[in-house]
Predict the 3D structure of the following.
Amino acid sequence: MKILKAPVLQFGDQLGIFAPASPVRLEYVRKGQEYLTQSGFRNREGGSLLGRSYHVAGDLRARLADFENLLLDPEVKGLIAARGGYGSLPLLPFLDFALIGRHPKIILGFSDLTALQLALWQRLKLVTFSGPMLAVEMARPGTVNSALLWGLLTGAKEAEVKPLLSAYLVSQKIEYLRASRFSGRSLGGTLTLLASLVGTPYMPDLAGKIIFIEDRGEPLYRIDRALTQLRLAGVFNSPAAVVCGEFSLPNKIEEPLLPNFLKDFFAGDDFPVLINFSYGHCPQSFIFPQGIMMEFDCRRGMITLLESAVREDGR
């Protein structure tokens, strides 16, 4: 299996900002741009970044054009989604995968971007990055693990990145089922987006993978529904592990019930499960490369990238 990786990012590079999903607010865009500048990067806005059409950030053609134009711009070395919400899923049938394959670049985002990232893995085996977005996390100082983010994107040495990844296993709130040591390619994201991809040609094969799941604003019965849909589709037949991140429920009375629900849901399986891992819609969220081999050693509290997430040649 040939993995497609984007060229490594360098401080001083220009990053393209695109809005594939919900509309964005100018004040948050500007705050996110300040964060990029302070981090040592330039940025270019997509032409329809501040557009709006009904409930999405501009019509489908405009959002596609922004994405493709930023890919084709030789000055732009990576793409950052402005925000999630909803809107990435309808783009999938219209993506020019051949074009994207000829111009692989870093693509950073999560939440609704889960659909785009998993489609790019399924069709191209392109490594993307599940991490902060410009007009959300980057617009709120202190919510981004900047050392981990830029370490991953700039190809920092494994000895530098490993402690940053491993720190996420220190949390006392994590609960483990059958977890000791496991490895596999990391794939996943927002649970409801994973469920939405089931039965489509954009859903990757998750056998042998470390599956990350998280969500926000979904009541317990909808989390149950989405997980059950994945189970009925065979997604949980043979993963390497499932890592359950943050789930912010709208009914605060239900939130304390979630860990036990997840333990019950996965009780009859034979693969490792982590619950309450700090990934998702939460401050200082875990950041991971979609499609890269990783190893979790839960007893020793170590997370290791088993390969580089970016390509160091071609710059």
